[in-house]
Amino acid sequence: MKDARPPDARSALIGAFLLGFAVAGIPFWRIPYSALVVPDAFYGIGVGVVFVAAAVLAYRHGALKGLLCAALVLPAVLMARVIVESVLDPTRHNLWPLALAIVLVLGLVVAGAGAACG
Predict the structure, then answer these.
(1) Region 8-23: what's the mean pLDDT?
(2) What DSSP assignment string belongs to 96-113?
(3) Closest by alpha carbon to 75, among 45, 48, 96, 52?
(4) Which helix (H) or strand (E) holds 68?
(5) For 54-92, how does the pLDDT look when each residue is reduced to its tens digit (9 = 90+)?
(6) Nearest to 86 by CA among 98, 94, 97, 76
(7) What average pLDDT does the segment 12-32 reach?
(8) Who contacts 2 (Cβ-Cβ below 8 Å, separation ≥6)?
(9) Which residues contact 23 (CB under 8 A, 6 or more apart)?
(10) Cβ distance 47 to 113 under 8 Å?
(11) How far apart, in whole angstroms, are the C-alpha atoms of residue 78 and residue 55?
């Protein structure tokens, strides 16, 4: 017997965010600090994940939820790296607010395009 209940929107949004966080984060976190260039480090799989997540979430749960959930993946990935590396070496990330603003704009643009397609 098939369950006729619709999937829970909250768990779908959280699951999509966590999946995007892992898929975009693992390649980004593996880049050595000396070779890291923001936002170029997110081009490729990171941008693709955000676009697809925004399109699918917008189709299933509405454009605004899809846009906001997917747009915050890349800034969250960046902040996770900043927090971990700042604990190890406090002098390393002195321009993180600027990098965060750049990545937030990138996430909003890519998620906006994905949500529009969804």
Answers:
(1) 90
(2) HHHHHHHHHHHHHHHHHH
(3) 96
(4) helix 63-71
(5) 999 999 989 999 999 999 999 999 999 999 999 998 888
(6) 94
(7) 94
(8) none
(9) 45, 49
(10) no
(11) 22
Domain range list for the chain: 9-117
State the first-to-last Cα distance of the chain, in angstroms, to the nearest integer.
31
Per-residue pLDDT tens digits for 100-112: 999 999 999 999 9
- CA proximity to 70, closest of 40, 95, 42: 42
Q: What pTM does this model have?
A: 0.89
Enter the tokens of residue 28. Answer: 């980004």
In the Cβ-directed half-sphere of 24, how many Cα atoms lie within 13 Å?
A: 34
Q: Average pLDDT of the chain?
A: 90
- Between CA 49 and CA 47 the distance in angstroms is 5
